[in-house]
Every structure is written in structure tokens, then in C-alpha cells.
Amino acid sequence: MTQHAFDDPADDDRMDTDRMAEPDADAQLFEDADAQSFRDRWQQVQSRFVDDPRGAVADADALVGDVTQTLTSRFADQRSGLERQWSEGEDVQTEDLRQTMQRYRTLFERLLAA
Known about the structure:
By secondary structure, the protein is mainly α. It has helices spanning 17-20, 32-48, 53-87, 94-113.
């Protein structure tokens, strides 16, 4: 964690960006089965490239679209759940918000790392 002149070193319980970047099972972008299915599909697409480059590229495009749609849906569902809790007057737990923020940060960092 980077120490700044205005930081209170005794305040180790606050959520900071360094702690948010730590890997966490809740920060997975996909369920294990979904991720494996996408990997299997990618292997099939990639193995077809030599015999049918144009078809493989078209299939790769479709697969990336499926991955993107699945990811977008997961984040939209999560956001909708939080918004539903807020609209019903329920108190959303800080831990739920921390996990949501961690998922967004994981996605953001992965997208920019490419």
C-alpha cells in the first residue's frame, strides 16, 4: 500500500485500492463451467483456422460476442439486484458493495491489460 502524508497509518481497516486489487473468488468474471465452455469453444475455433481461416475468424467473432454478452448480462443482473434492494428501502451491506466494486475493478483492469 502506498503511504501518503495525509494517510493515517493506524487506519488499517479501511478499504483501499490496493486491497481491492487482491484476487478473490468473488471477483471471478465467469462461473468455472462457463469459463471452461468458452475455452473449449475457443480451442475448436482455433483448431479450424488452418483448414478454414475465414470461417474460424467468423466463429471467433461470434464467440467473443457471446463472452461479451454473458459478461454484460452478469454485471447488469448484479446492478439490478442492488438497485432493487435500494428501491425497496433495504439497506445494502457494505460487504456486498465492496464485492461489487471489486468485480468492476477486476473487469476494468483486465480490459485495460489487453
